[in-house]
From TrEMBL:
This is Tryptophan 7-halogenase. InterPro entries: FAD/NAD-bd_sf, Flavin-dep_Halogenase_NPB, Flavin_halogenase, Trp_halogen. Pfam families: Trp_halogenase (PF04820). PANTHER family: FAD-BINDING PROTEIN, FLAVIN-DEPENDENT TRYPTOPHAN HALOGENASE.
Length: 492
């Protein structure tokens, strides 16, 4: 059977993945193709996923989303990074910030100069050389000229889906409410149509599976296997609860590690999102719920909700005429908030690869590029668990002692020996992120680049002080984060 030209795109599911795909496709290709999104209010969405990373700004620019309207509608606040508490050892805190730390020299990364400065007693804390980190710690924010401050958002995911729905409908997207009961297959093995509970049949040339963990198209109908990564990522359960705000929101997420778990705190304009992520082999649901409910601040606005997941990935995200995005394509775990980014990466790659007629070469290219992204993100997340001084519970001992992917082993060994991180320019997490987390989790490089030795103490001190002075100067002129939000994008 010949494949048709791609004229009808059907999106199954209306969570964050479905509506981001709908917004991007209708805004860019809406005049050329028919787009239909099917969702079911009865089934609902996963309802979490509220911390983002700076690449979301690029996505919004690509499709012309007005930032003030978006932030007001989703009750968003600013995120400048993540504070990790108790990850290296109980009582220790470090920060993974967006942006860059220090200034690179022609010869070597800033960390080499900082390490030498520490040896000589000339350097302050690593974070003093990072604008975003210093601003986060002082609870300040403002936009700066020339994108001078790197940031992302905390957002209300239900409101985000509603916002993107209004946006997409302006560009001609058709929304159908109903439960998908059957995925009808064509003779050649492609998907032909979605059949809803009222008998409606929605035919398409290309289908986008955004049905969340159900993976109705890519998993159930097409049988693409799931690759289990739980030997590297031990957590498999989460409980989420929303609370009333008790103070002005800070511009960062807190990730607080426990004995076999970690908790998130995501502050929005009107409330906070809280949750506990844990390994069910080491902690039962009741214990996790008690830890969460005993440590949250503020009155709960929702019942605590249990979510199970299996860390891993579909072997192929694009199979035949179906592309899976979001949870349908896989899920690592919430740490470092990478899933919305991976949705966006999948959408932009799909837009670039948008086929006139679905073909296997394009599918293979897409799958291998997505695979690279995923393995990079997986390695970065595993790093947080594996490099730790913690040995106080079975969970942490297993994390510290497990064998990790060889790609991650290489980055860790190289940094531990030389203080260098290479070749990450096209990757989501660049040098600044890896260095902050590796040092934060406790690696001090054994050697460093000799370039700083070319500087005498006075020159090195001038170099370091100029950077920290400029950072503290800029931060002192920024308004309080929440004052800025109140004037820039008060919630609607
Ligand atoms: P869902 O939100 O589950 O949407 C699925 C859609 O499919 C729904 O509309 C549903 O109604 C529809 N559907 C399903 N079956 C049918 C059917 N039979 N008929 C019709 N419709 C159907 N990501 C981040 O980037 N940052 C974070 O901070 C973050 N935190 C997370 C915390 C936890 C505990 C978890 C589990 C995930 C987190 N994620 C995070 C991931 C993030 O939540 C998801 O990537 C994001 O919400 C996208 O979900 P989705 O759209 O794929 O699925």
């Amino acid at each position: 059977m010949q494949r048709n030209r791609v004229r009808r795109v059907v999106i199954a599911g209306g969570g964050t993945a479905g509506w981001m795909a709908a917004a991007a496709l209708s805004r860019t290709l809406g005049k050329y193709i028919d787009i239909t999104l099917v969702e079911s209010d009865d089934i609902g969405t996963v309802g979490v996923g509220e911390a983002t990373i700076p690449t979301l700004l690029t996505f919004h620019r690509l499709i012309d989303i007005n930032e003030q309207e978006f932030m007001a509608a989703t009750h968003a606040t600013i995120k400048l990074g993540i504070q990790f508490e108790n990850w290296r050892h109980v009582g220790h805190t470090y920060f993974h910030s967006f942006g860059t730390t220090g200034r690179d020299h022609w010869s070597a990364g800033f960390q080499h100069f900082w390490l030498k400065g520490r040896e000589r007693g000339l350097a302050g804390e690593y974070g003093e050389y990072c604008l975003e980190l210093s601003a986060a710690m002082q609870g300040r924010f403002s936009h700066l000229p020339n994108n001078g401050i790197n940031y992302a958002y905390h957002l209300d995911s239900t409101r985000y889906a509603q916002f993107l729905r209004r946006f997409s409908e302006r560009y001609g997207l058709r929304r159908v409410e109903g439960v998908i009961e059957e995925v009808a297959m064509a003779e050649n093995g492609d998907i032909q149509a979605l059949v809803l509970n009222d008998g409606t049949r929605i035919e398409g040339d290309l289908f986008i599976d955004c049905t969340g963990f159900r993976a109705l198209l890519i998993g159930k109908a097409l049988g693409v296997e799931y690759e289990d990564w739980s030997h590297w990522l031990l957590t498999d359960s989460a409980i989420a609860v929303q609370t009333e705000s008790v103070r002005d929101p800070v511009p960062y997420v807190r990730c607080i590690a426990g004995g076999a778990d970690w908790q998130w705190r995501i502050p929005l304009q009107h409330r906070a999102g809280n949750g506990i992520v844990y390994a069910s082999r080491y902690m039962d649901d009741d214990t996790a719920r008690k830890i969460l409910m005993n440590t949250i601040e503020g009155v709960p606005r929702t019942e605590p909700r249990l979510i199970r997941f299996k860390p891993g990935q579909r072997k192929r995200c694009w199979e035949r005429n179906c592309v899976a995005l979001g949870l349908a394509s896989g899920f690592l775990e919430p740490l470092e908030s990478t899933n919305i980014h991976l949705i966006q990466r999948g959408i932009t790659r799909l837009l670039q690869a948008f086929p006139e007629i679905v073909n296997q070469v394009e599918i293979d290219e897409y799958n291998s590029r997505m695979r690279e992204d995923l393995e990079h993100v997986r390695d970065f997340v595993v790093l947080h668990y594996h490099v730790t001084d913690r040995r106080d519970t079975g969970f942490w001992r297993e994390c510290a002692e497990m064998s990790v992917p060889s790609s991650l082993r290489h980055v860790i060994d190289l940094f531990a020996e030389t203080g260098k991180v290479y070749n990450l320019t096209n990757q989501l997490f660049a040098e600044n992120s890896w260095i902050q987390v590796m040092m934060g989790q406790g690696i001090t490089p054994r050697h460093r680049h000799p370039a700083p030795d070319l500087m005498g103490d006075p020159e090195l001190k001038r170099f370091l002080d100029a950077i920290s002075g400029s950072v503290s100067n800029t931060v002192s002129r920024l308004p309080a984060h929440m004052d800025y939000i109140r004037s820039y994008c008060p919630m609607k």
